[in-house]
């Protein structure tokens, strides 16, 4: 009997000890979580970061709500450095649209999940530029440059163009940048940065010159702003100046101004005063900046080729004649192009109002060549931008609206659709590109396919960029 009671007593004591131990263990785990000691209990943070780095970025917005520790980890540079090391970075498309009341909205597209994410609203900028001029706001860009440049010829006392527009957009070092713009016909210097890691906007160092409708390009991990317009004594005047931004130092530096050599050789002083030189397009290609130029006199634009900036020589030279002549015009005063996998592409409207054709440039022969097939581009004559071009995941993409006012992101198969009818022309690609074209000559793969759509209603397309994080 005594031995039995002794055993029962021992079991009771043991069970109580185990219960207390479990309670203390739970308390320690709870205190550990409350103290944010570990991202995932029982795992070192180094392992937890490795796990988080493998999760699709589209999930990060909700994952920030798990705890303060998770939020801190997800917005840390360490996490995105690990993603680079693991090769799990994802390239997204960032699209700027303009909706009612001249409001500007950014959207990000994850092309793999085909899900859209709305970005925070761009903040307004309030400042006083000159005594007596009042407080102005900078919102964004989108008005056709032709309508603004027409202001050069509008007499004093007539109504000025819309008050907020003309900002330029670029993407570098994993962030979006919105540069300058017009505010009550005055060009501003302000620069805003959107950081996808923080999902927030912040103001950066201003440009050295206030400019609107400038052209932007990325070269050697630096952001270039070239040309544009600013306000002079007699109204808006075109700019020949250019500057470059280093995201690592946060400093803007001036580079030599564009010579606009074609504008310097006009036969009479009257024409020189009448025709305004303006940069209408720019692209980074083969380690240089290629800037398309025009001479403008309302309501006409006269293409005059362009100029090329060499960062190593820090000099401008004339653009190859064939490149300037064949560079298609998107709309009056704008030439659009994109470089994908070291090839330069542009889009040119076809004879049909609801389609366009892709052109590719060959630097060896200084010629452009059409690719097979039409890309469906609906005719939006009143739209400020009927289409945009982007290089996403190593492929050419066209962003346009369909007949139902939905935004379509179309991937264009340029590799397998070279125009056989143009084979007699003097045109050559590099060997790898040419081999791919020949191997796909008999393919029946369609030229384009829709990878994502979004209801746009009355929204207008403004600009787009891609970021890989």
TrEMBL record:
<dbReference type="InterPro" id="IPR001810">
    <property type="entry name" value="F-box_dom"/>
</dbReference>
<dbReference type="Pfam" id="PF00646">
    <property type="entry name" value="F-box"/>
</dbReference>
<dbReference type="InterPro" id="IPR015915">
    <property type="entry name" value="Kelch-typ_b-propeller"/>
</dbReference>
<keyword id="KW-0677">Repeat</keyword>
<dbReference type="Pfam" id="PF01344">
    <property type="entry name" value="Kelch_1"/>
</dbReference>
<dbReference type="InterPro" id="IPR006652">
    <property type="entry name" value="Kelch_1"/>
</dbReference>
<dbReference type="InterPro" id="IPR036047">
    <property type="entry name" value="F-box-like_dom_sf"/>
</dbReference>
<protein>
    <recommendedName>
        <fullName>F-box domain-containing protein</fullName>
    </recommendedName>
</protein>
<keyword id="KW-0880">Kelch repeat</keyword>
<feature type="domain" description="F-box">
    <location>
        <begin position="37"/>
        <end position="83"/>
    </location>
</feature>
């Amino acid at each position: 009997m005594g031995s039995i009671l002794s055993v029962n007593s021992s079991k009771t004591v043991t069970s109580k000890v185990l219960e207390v131990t479990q309670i203390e263990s739970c308390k320690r785990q709870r205190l550990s979580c409350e103290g944010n000691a570990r991202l995932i209990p029982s795992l070192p943070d180094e392992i937890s970061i490795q796990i988080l780095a493998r999760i699709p970025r589209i999930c990060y917005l909700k994952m920030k709500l798990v705890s303060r520790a998770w939020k801190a980890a997800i917005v840390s540079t360490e996490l995105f450095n690990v993603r680079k090391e693991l090769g799990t970075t994802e390239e997204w498309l960032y699209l700027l649209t303009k909706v009612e009341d001249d409001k500007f909205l950014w959207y990000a597209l994850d092309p793999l999940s085909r899900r859209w994410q709305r970005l925070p609203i761009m903040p307004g900028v309030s400042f006083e530029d000159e005594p007596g001029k009042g407080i102005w706001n900078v919102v964004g860009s989108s008005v056709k440059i032709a309508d603004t440049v027409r202001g050069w010829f509008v007499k004093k006392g007539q109504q000025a163009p819309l008050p907020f527009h003309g900002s330029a957009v670029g993407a570098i070092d994993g962030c979006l940048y919105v540069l300058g713009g017009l505010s009550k016909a005055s060009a501003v210097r302000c620069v805003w940065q959107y950081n996808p890691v923080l999902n927030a906007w912040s103001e950066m160092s201003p440009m050295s010159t206030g400019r609107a409708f400038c052209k932007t390009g990325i070269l050697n991990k630096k952001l270039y702003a070239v040309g544009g317009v600013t306000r002079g004594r007699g109204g808006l005047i075109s700019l020949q100046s250019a500057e470059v931004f280093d995201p690592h130092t946060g400093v803007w530096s001036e580079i030599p101004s564009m010579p606009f050599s074609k504008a310097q050789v006009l036969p009479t002083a009257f024409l020189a005063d009448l025709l305004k030189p303006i940069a209408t397009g720019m692209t980074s290609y083969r380690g240089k900046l290629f800037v398309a130029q025009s001479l403008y006199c309302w309501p006409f634009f006269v293409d005059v080729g362009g100029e090329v900036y060499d960062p190593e020589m820090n000099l401008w030279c004339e653009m190859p004649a064939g490149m300037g002549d064949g560079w298609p015009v998107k709309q009056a005063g704008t030439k659009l192009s994109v470089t994908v996998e070291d090839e330069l592409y542009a889009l040119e409207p076809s004879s049909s109002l609801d389609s366009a054709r892709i052109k590719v440039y060959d630097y060896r022969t200084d010629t452009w060549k059409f690719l097979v097939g039409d890309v469906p581009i609906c005719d939006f004559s009143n739209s400020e931008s009927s289409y945009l071009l982007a290089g996403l995941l190593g492929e050419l993409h066209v962003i346009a609206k369909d007949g139902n006012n939905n935004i379509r992101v179309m991937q264009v198969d340029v590799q397998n659709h070279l125009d056989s009818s143009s084979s007699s022309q003097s045109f050559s690609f590099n060997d790898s590109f040419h081999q791919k074209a020949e191997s796909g000559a008999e393919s029946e793969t369609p030229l384009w396919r829709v990878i994502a759509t979004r209801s746009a209603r009355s929204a207008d397309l403004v600009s787009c960029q891609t970021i890989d994080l």
